Amino acid sequence: MRYSEFWELVDEVFGPQVGRSLAADQVLGALGDRTSREALDQGEDPRSVWRALCDAMDVPEQDRWGSDQRRPARR
């Protein structure tokens, strides 16, 4: 996942205003008590940050990837 994809998903899944606020303000234990933005700024993998944010916000798996074109292929 690229950083741009992370931010697109934040906007799509949470909405632009709420999502950006969550990324900046929500401290996540899974990220070492950092916010998503802090973790990304410190080089954390965007996919790991996305999973941590979704887990913390109880986003169901089927809703995590936004539109169908972005969903990962099933194996």
Automatic annotation (TrEMBL):
Lineage top rank: taxon: Bacteria
Pfam family for this entry, one: DUF3046
Protein name as it appears in the record: DUF3046 domain-containing protein
Organism for this UniProt entry: Actinotalea soli
